[in-house]
Amino acid sequence: MSxxxxxxxxxxxVGRTVGTPHASGGRRLARMSDFWPAVYALIxxxxxxxxxxxxxxxxxxxxxxxxxxxxxxxxxxxxxEARARASEDS
Length: 90
Description:
Elements: E1 2-6, E2 12-18, E3 28-29, H1 35-89
Antiparallel strand pairs: 1-2, 2-3
């Protein structure tokens, strides 16, 4: 909502109004000074999200590597079993 409003300090300005009316009866303007505290408030959440991403990526990669290693071991065991059967048959 844009409007021509008078700030609490009496200066007129045009901008987006936010919040509830102040005791002076006017609404306050959304300023850049309101932007950085909001960004700072989001930093911990973003940091936790990044840590979660890397933790999940490490878990998924470890699982994939473990499955590949187990498949190799199973293939080696199958080959050894096949050789043992072939030597018994001869």
